[in-house]
Design brief:
By secondary structure, the chain is α+β, with helices and mostly antiparallel strands. The protein is 34% helix and 15% strand. The longest helix is centred in the first third of the chain and has 12 residues.
Length: 121
């Protein structure tokens, strides 16, 4: 995430491969960051700069990664002129998000969740 909003190249070595980093990478690719294929030896992220995340063409999917969801919501809230729609798998959509949504709303973010501020329908 930090590499995506930094300017220039970030190299990540020894990445623990799993679904969470894959979901994170896909979300940030959709918003303009160039991220090499994930492998445990070396991942290269070409950041686009702070405040420059692009509005994606589709819904961002955090999969089952609560960390991706919660941290990404804060970053997305810093882009008030763009629309982002974020989802996750059924398990993630059932988790409470009010501890993230409420503070962001108090900081003037235009953010909504479904059903008691979870992401569930």
């Amino acid at each position: 995430m930090l590499g995506a909003i930094a300017e220039g190249e970030t190299i990540i070595e020894g990445l623990l491969l799993g679904e969470d980093p894959r979901s994170t990478a896909e979300c940030f690719r959709a918003m303009g960051a160039q991220i090499s294929p994930l492998n445990s030896e070396k991942v290269t992220v070409q950041g686009i700069g702070l405040g420059k995340l692009e509005e994606p063409l589709d819904v961002l999917n955090a999969g089952n990664s609560g960390t991706t969801m919660r941290l990404m919501l804060g970053l997305l809230a810093s882009h008030p002129d763009r629309l982002f729609c974020v989802t996750g798998d059924a398990s993630l959509r059932s988790r409470p998000m009010s501890r993230v949504i409420k503070p962001l709303q108090e900081m003037s973010a235009q953010i909504w969740g479904r059903k008691d501020n979870t992401l569930a329908p």
